[in-house]
Amino acid sequence: MARRREPRDVLEKMHSQHAQDKKNDRMETGSFPQVRKKPKRDLNRNASRARLLTSALVMVLCALLGFGYMTQINNTTSTYETMSESELVRLITESNTQLSNLQQRKNELTSQLNSLKSAVDEQEQAQRIAKQNEETSGLLSGRLPATGEGVIVTVGEGRDEKVDASIMFSLIEELRNAGAEVIAINDVRVVATTYIKDADTGLVSDGVTLTPSYVVRAIGNSQDLANAVNIAGGVGAQLQVKYGATVTVETSDTVEINQVRDDTQYKYAKTVE
C-alpha cells in the first residue's frame, strides 16, 4: 500500500512547487510582499472623551460640596432652634460664668503687670541713684575727670619772694570756700588728703614736684570763684603785693580737669550700714 501512494505524493509536491514558482516569477525583481497597514488611532476622539469625563467628575464634586455646605448650615441653625428654654438658659448662664472668669483673670494679669512695671521703675530709680552716687563719689575722690564752668588761675614766679606752700594752700582753700567742686594744680588732682609743701625747685604736692608758673583749675560758679581770688585784701592781692607774683584769673564756661587719682584705701573709716 505504501508503494502505491508514493508516486502520487511526488506528483502533488511537484504541482505545488510549480505553482509557487509561477507565482514568484510574476513578482518584479526587488519588490516585497504587500503588508496591510494598521488603521491610525483617533487621538482627538480620546482627548474629547477624557475632557468630558473630567467635566462630569468636577460637576459631581461641586454638587457634593454644595450639598455638604447646606447641610451644615441647616444643622447649625437647627441646633439653637431645637434647644429647649432650659437648655438656652443653661447655655447663657455658662457663657456669663466664662465671661466673668475671663474678666477676673484679666484683672489679675493687669495687677501683675502694674506690679512688674512698678518694680522696674523702682529698680531703674535705684540704678539711677546708684549711678549718681558713683559719679559724685568719683568726682570727690578724683577717680573721674570733670568738666564745667569755672576759673583758671595762673600764678607766676614771685619777684620779691618765692611763692611758698602756705600761700598756695590759702588759694586752694579760698576756692573751696567759694564753692569749687573740683580743683587741680598743675598735674595734681586736689582731693581731701592733698598736701603742699615747699621744695628747692618750687613746691611738692602729693609727691609731685610743681614748678612755676602754677596753674590752678577750679570748677564751680565762675563769678564766685573769680571774686574769691580778686577780692580786695584777698589771696590774689597777697600774691601780688607780698610775693611780687603775677596773678591772672580767667573765667570760662568749659574748664576741663583730666587729672585723676586712684581709689583711696581707708584703713579706719567704714561706711555706716
UniProtKB/TrEMBL annotation:
<keyword id="KW-0175">Coiled coil</keyword>
<dbReference type="Pfam" id="PF05949">
    <property type="entry name" value="DUF881"/>
</dbReference>
<comment type="similarity">
    <text>Belongs to the UPF0749 family.</text>
</comment>
<protein>
    <recommendedName>
        <fullName>Division initiation protein</fullName>
    </recommendedName>
</protein>
<feature type="coiled-coil region">
    <location>
        <begin position="92"/>
        <end position="133"/>
    </location>
</feature>
<keyword id="KW-1133">Transmembrane helix</keyword>
<dbReference type="GO" id="GO:0005886">
    <property type="term" value="C:plasma membrane"/>
</dbReference>
<keyword id="KW-0472">Membrane</keyword>
<dbReference type="InterPro" id="IPR010273">
    <property type="entry name" value="DUF881"/>
</dbReference>
<feature type="transmembrane region" description="Helical">
    <location>
        <begin position="50"/>
        <end position="70"/>
    </location>
</feature>
<feature type="compositionally biased region" description="Basic and acidic residues">
    <location>
        <begin position="1"/>
        <end position="28"/>
    </location>
</feature>
<keyword id="KW-0812">Transmembrane</keyword>
<feature type="region of interest" description="Disordered">
    <location>
        <begin position="1"/>
        <end position="46"/>
    </location>
</feature>
